[in-house]
TrEMBL record, chains A, B:
Protein name: Dihydrofolate reductase family protein
Pfam family, one: RibD_C
Source domain of life: Bacteria
UniProt cross-references to Gene3D superfamilies, sorted A to Z: Dihydrofolate Reductase, subunit A (3.40.430.10)
Coiled-coil residue spans: none
Positions of the Bacterial bifunctional deaminase-reductase C-terminal domain: 9-187
Amino acid sequence: MDQLLRVQNFTVSRDGFGAGEGQSQERPFGHADPMDLMAWAVATASFPNRTGPGGSRGLDDYFTRDFAHGIGAEIMGRNKFGPQRGPWQDHEWQGWWGAEPPFHTPVFVMTHHPRPSFTLADTTFHFVDGDPATVLGLAREAAQGRDVRLGGGATTVRQFLDADLVDTLHVAVAPVELGSGTRLWSSPDELLDRYHRNVVPSPSGVVHHLFWRR
Amino acid sequence: MDQLLRVQNFTVSRDGFGAGEGQSQERPFGHADPMDLMAWAVATASFPNRTGPGGSRGLDDYFTRDFAHGIGAEIMGRNKFGPQRGPWQDHEWQGWWGAEPPFHTPVFVMTHHPRPSFTLADTTFHFVDGDPATVLGLAREAAQGRDVRLGGGATTVRQFLDADLVDTLHVAVAPVELGSGTRLWSSPDELLDRYHRNVVPSPSGVVHHLFWRR
């Protein structure tokens, strides 16, 4: 089996932004309301951060259910880990993901400012300064034959797309306009020269775009 | 987590038949052409019986990819195992599923004519005479906390629906009319009093119906 690099459940606004402007520790999505983007996923039975019972088991649930399936490592940009820019002031803060992060695999955080690895529950965060191909090599090795998830944000997905390293992308387009922020694309049609695509509207209001290599 | 009874990737004709008339060893789907029903699944990268590389990774692939995910046992009707009716003439023939069946779990074959269990690769077939609730109890125990797949055919799915034992159903409606055969429903709307539903047309031509309990 191929060992794929997969973007999963990545949500953008109708105008192509994965997050708004003005990210801070209190506002990981900047001026965007996270629920405007993530409500479709939060409502499903298989949402990775779900703590209680219930939730829908329709179309959207197939996407959240697939989040960890066959995945052995995640790659994320530094600002999916935390809001800091530049050198770390300290290593005390351990990211937005709580004491039990939803990844359950090694996570490779891309940053020009490495810091020591650490483990929270069954997730180990590694901080690596390297180009996309190098970081993907590390993540592939850690995944031990399973696929690698490219977790975002938009800037990081964009870097891997530009390096032509992404095998499949699932992007949910949410029914909201952000106007500014970190941009994934001007239009999803940009990828059609390299990828097949299915466009699947969901009753929840998002439109799932599923891309796989030609 | 709940231990669900799930129907997955079960395909029927537009007029509600899971198979045609006149089943035989050579024609498991009777007068129906299996490819008219199953082409959508066979084309995907994750089709359980795929032997070579390739295949699509769009919407339909999410369904075939989910086939084994979280499943610990399967229940099937006798005529998904083989074409025989009445008492077994011998036990030599070991079903339609080849030396490496795609189930990889215990399989409970419902029949009024039990025969000894046997194992092919990592699939063990058990033959049980019991009502749906009894067979589900056995399958749940064998699944060790994982979900149970209700594999079909249409008559068997119907029995479990009538006993109100099915938690989720994914039925793909294929663009073909069979006219006669084993019937799942007169209309998918029959289930709306008990289930939520998403209706999701696929570019492949099938329409996925996703039901989960109200």
